[in-house]
Amino acid sequence: MKKDIHPNYGPCKVSCACGNTFETQATVDEIKVGVCSVCHPFYTGKKGRILSEAGRLEKFNKKYAGINYGQKEATE
User: Fold this and answer.
1) Which among 16, 51, 12, 13 has a CA at the least distance from the CA of 37?
2) Mean pLDDT of 38-60
3) Which residues participate in Zn(2+) binding (predicted)?
4) 16 labeled part of a ligand binding site
5) Is 18 annotated as a binding residue?
6) DSSP codes, 4-61
7) Could you tell me if 28 and 8 are in contact, meaning their C-beta atoms sit under 8 angstroms apart?
8) Residue 64 is inside which H or E element, if any?
9) Is residue 23 part of a domain?
10) Are 8 and 24 in contact (CB under 8 A)?
11) Does residue 2 lie within any of the structural domains?
């Protein structure tokens, strides 16, 4: 390995939006995440967070429903 070109690799604190924290190794001192294994629906078996994301998708589709983004319209 070449000297003085690699970032420092050391302890890192990971903080989740749910309040869970844990230590790992990384090139940065702190990482903030929105979902971790404690609050992710796949691990908890709860579907509450997925429903709120579905609502955001419906809102997006409703907002941009009439825009064709430069594509030709389909002829009937």
Assistant:
1) 16
2) 70
3) 16, 18, 36, 39
4) yes
5) yes
6) T-SPP-EEEEEEETTS-EEEEEESSSEEEES--TTT-HHHH---HHHHHHHHHHHHHH
7) no
8) none
9) yes
10) no
11) no
Residue 40's domain spans which residues? 10-63
12 labelled as ligand-binding? no
69, part of any domain: no
Euclidean distance between CA atoms 38 and 44, whole angstroms? 7
Could you tell me which of 54, 22, 55 has the C-alpha nearest to residue 38? 22
**Is the model's pLDDT at 62 over the cut of 80?**
yes
Question: Total domain count for the chain?
Answer: 1
> What type of residue sits at position 68?
N
CATH of the domain at 24: 4.10.80.400
Within its chain, how far is the Cα of 35 from the centroid?
A: 7
Return the closest-CA partner of residue 21 out of 44, 1, 37, 8.
37
User: What is the pLDDT, as a whole number, of residue 14?
Assistant: 94
In the block, residue with structure tokens 């390995």: 1
Q: Is the pLDDT of residue 52 over 70?
A: no
